[in-house]
From TrEMBL:
Protein name per UniProt: HTH cro/C1-type domain-containing protein
Presence of the UniProt keyword Transmembrane in the record: no
Lineage, opening ranks: Bacteria, Pseudomonadati, Pseudomonadota, Betaproteobacteria, Nitrosomonadales
Alphabetical UniProt keywords: Plasmid
InterPro entries registered for this protein in UniProt: HI1420, Lambda_DNA-bd_dom_sf
Coiled-coil residues: none
MF GO annotations: DNA binding
Keyword Hydrolase tagged: no
NCBIfam families membership: dnstrm_HI1420 (TIGR02684)
PANTHER family per the UniProt record, alphabetical: SSL7038 PROTEIN (PTHR40275)
């Protein structure tokens, strides 16, 4: 299979756009994190966090700065990953983001 000249993969383009636009990265993660509530769709949120980590330094750099082994981060941010709160917070902090809580629009209190 030959590679087409000037063609960029969707993933590479996504990383480029997310690294160039911080607000886009925030909104991208917000939308993807909603999938974490659904066990059948959890992979989307984990892969989005992985993509943002790639956009903001790469997985090896993020892992080192977060105090996590690279292999552990790859596993944690895989479709079947199950990050601890500590890992999630460390990765978010490393890429310059933080976890926040919002009211559910249709919450019954």
């Amino acid at each position: 299979m030959r590679k087409l000249k000037g063609v960029v993969s969707h993933h590479e383009r996504e990383i480029t756009e997310l690294s160039a636009d911080r607000e886009l990265a925030v909104e991208y993660l917000k939308a993807a994190m909603e999938s974490l509530d659904n066990p059948d769709d959890r992979a989307a949120g984990l892969l989005a966090l992985r993509t943002v980590a790639e956009a903001y330094g790469g997985l090896a750099v993020v892992a080192a700065e977060a105090g996590i082994s690279r292999e552990s981060l790859y596993r944690t941010l895989s479709p079947k990953g199950n990050p601890t709160l500590k890992t999630l917070l460390a990765v978010l902090k490393t890429v310059g983001l933080r976890l926040s809580v919002e009211s559910e629009p249709h919450a019954h209190v």
